[in-house]
Input
Amino acid sequence: MTESESKKEKRTYLRVSLPGNLTYFNFTSNKVVKAKVKDLSGKGLGFETEEELEPSMPLDIWIDIADSGEQAHAEGEVIWVKKISKDKYSVGVTLKSSGLNPLPNILKKNKSNDK
Output
């Protein structure tokens, strides 16, 4: 395998940078926590949080939709966690539910805000 092949993106879905807010429920700690969205795809989500999470943890997630006051709900599972500073973690989640019906609206709002 060449170096360019090993660095090739292996995702099935396009990942879109989507700065914004989300709230999640951590079933392990029974806490509701606010976090910052980094990116979103058809099957995954990246965000930053002050709470240290563990891979395989289930989360109930609500993503704020910019300018509408609405939230999109998803169920997810933590896939990876990386400590990026003291009390700050980058988290990758796979989305388990298909409840993100407003996903096109989220992406549309993000694009309109970039112009």
In short: Residues 1-7, 107-115 have pLDDT under 50 and may be disordered. The chain has one domain: 11-106. The longest strand covers residues 71-85. Strands lie at 16-26, 31-40, 44-49, 58-64, 71-85, 88-95.
